[in-house]
Design brief:
With about 350 residues, the protein is α/β, with parallel strands linked by helices. The chain has a single domain (about 5-240, about 300-325), classed as TIM Barrel. The chain has eleven helices and ten strands. The strands form two sheets. It has an eight-stranded parallel barrel with strand order 3-4-5-6-7-8-9-10, surrounded by six helices. A two-stranded antiparallel sheet has the order 1-2. Strand 3, helix 1 (about 30-40) and strand 4 form a beta-alpha-beta unit. It is globular.
Length: about 350
């Protein structure tokens, strides 16, 4: 397992991060514990969760994932072996604090709730799940039109950073990060932190895969120049890259059978791109999922690749991608497919 520096901190995180959002719906508490045991044994020291999880989200399952992690800590006493990341929800989730925005009060309430469920005194990386002002993520890129009051947003950013700084001083969180952010958002957070001596964002957790590479343009440059690397989520595009949904297939119990919220990725162009990438994988003697994950692992702007699994077989395959180096010939073939299908969903 390779390890990368988390921003400008003294923390080294594994290049594979254990994503946990299926725990509580698709996975039981015992499944979650088994996954964490295996991941830790394979050198994965970085786990990512959120107060919103399990996914698909609901009032009944909200917080279940953090509870499963907390019971695992209590059972094994190995909190010190894990770099733990969690998140506060943005606006719009009515059953979590009335769907209110990220601000001083809601941050304090969210952190206290997460700490209780996680059965820990601190969170290593505390992230803002999505911006108050909205963004082009979650399949919204085709109709996204930024419209917000710049001064009001910056004032909120300052309030949030000041609050996070208080929590760092109190020892409840160690570092802070972004999620589902834009170029303007990233640079504004970083600028305000520098100008005012407030906590600096150390990472940004955005979607990134062979099928979704919007990060490759401006955000890539920011990540590299500002030491604010990508924590890549949905590196298999929600399972689309496995090929299991090709031509409308819906295997029982899979994500697209549980919720339509992920169906925006299942387009005719995405189907054709998956077929083409599968042919590349077969040509080079690779498993398509491992090739897709190894590609994400290889990107210089990626600090850690957040994998997820609903079975131990999937987990072993996904973590195994850390040991795969793609040849220059394979990367050339991938680049050709990318030019043909640059934005398939």
């Amino acid at each position: 397992m390779l390890y990368n520096k988390l921003g400008r901190t003294d923390i080294n995180v594994s290049s594979i991060c254990l994503g946990t959002m299926t725990w509580g719906v698709q996975n039981t508490e015992n499944d979650a514990h088994e996954q964490m045991d295996y991941a830790l044994d394979q050198g994965v020291n970085f786990f990512d969760t959120a107060e919103l999880y399990a996914i698909p989200p609901s009032p009944e399952t909200q917080g279940k994932t953090e509870e499963y992690i907390g019971s695992w800590f209590a059972k094994n006493g190995n909190r010190d072996k894990v770099i733990l990341a969690s998140k506060i929800v943005g606006t719009g989730i009515s059953w979590i604090r009335g769907g209110d925005k990220i601000d001083r009060k809601n941050i304090h309430d969210a952190v206290e709730g997460s700490l209780k469920r996680l059965q820990t005194d601190y969170i290593d990386l505390y992230q803002l799940h999505w911006p108050n002002r909205g963004s082009y993520h979650f399949g919204q890129q085709w109709g996204y039109t930024p419209k917000f009051n710049k001064d009001a947003q910056e004032n909120n950013f300052i309030e949030v950073l000041e609050t996070l700084g208080e929590l760092i001083k109190a020892g409840k969180i160690r570092h802070v990060g972004l999620s589902n952010e834009t170029a303007w958002g990233m640079m504004t957070w970083l600028r305000l932190a520098e100008e005012r001596g407030l906590p600096r964002m150390v990472s940004v957790q955005n979607e990134y895969s062979l099928l979704y590479r919007s990060f490759d343009q401006d955000l890539h440059e920011i990540a590299m120049a500002e030491d604010c690397g990508l924590l890549a989520y949905s590196p298999l595009a929600g399972g689309i890259l496995s090929g299991k949904y090709i031509d409308g297939a819906r295997p029982k119990g899979t994500r697209l059978t549980l919720s339509e919220r992920f169906s925006h990725r299942d387009t005719p162009n995405a189907n054709e791109a998956v077929k083409a990438y599968t042919q590349v994988a077969q040509k080079h003697g690779l498993d398509i999922c491992q090739m897709a994950l190894a590609f994400v692992n290889s990107r210089p702007h990626v600090t850690s690749n957040i994998i997820g699994a609903t079975s131990m077989e999937q987990l072993k395959t996904n973590i195994g991608s850390a040991n795969i180096t793609l040849s220059s010939e394979c990367l050339k073939d991938i680049a050709q497919i990318y030019k043909t299908y640059p934005m398939p969903f």
